[in-house]
Design a protein that fits this description.
mainly alpha
Length: 115
């Protein structure tokens, strides 16, 4: 996966469309778990974006907004689903925290272990 593909993938995970009905945010909003491999692909894309932006001083607005949504909105949707009685997969909370850590790494410029 290259930088451009990674950016597009991350942005696509925040926007439900006919071409991408399984966007991560859309699935969580519907109380559905991620599709198999979706979190792994998201984490890979975040690592690729981290590498691509290591020396950058700015981040494109659309990408920054997608990163925000992947960190904050996923946490909110997870919590709302749990409150509504959604039976999330056992490791989803930890996976979403890994997304937060990877995104924080992008903004800080220093990669943090995702555990």
């Amino acid at each position: 996966m290259n930088y451009e593909t990674a950016c597009k993938f991350l942005i696509d995970q925040t926007i439900a469309s006919e071409e991408n009905p399984d966007a991560l945010l859309s699935r969580l909003q519907q109380g559905k778990p991620p599709v198999p491999g979706q979190i792994t692909s998201t984490l890979l894309a975040l690592k690729v974006v981290f590498e691509g932006l290591k020396e950058a001083t700015t981040i494109e607005r659309e990408l920054a907004y997608a990163l925000y949504q992947l960190t904050i909105k996923t946490q909110m949707l997870f919590a709302a689903g749990r409150k509504a009685g959604v039976d999330w997969p056992p490791l989803l909370k930890e996976d979403l925290l890994r997304i937060v850590i990877a995104t924080e790494s992008i903004f800080s410029g220093k990669w943090q272990n995702l555990h």
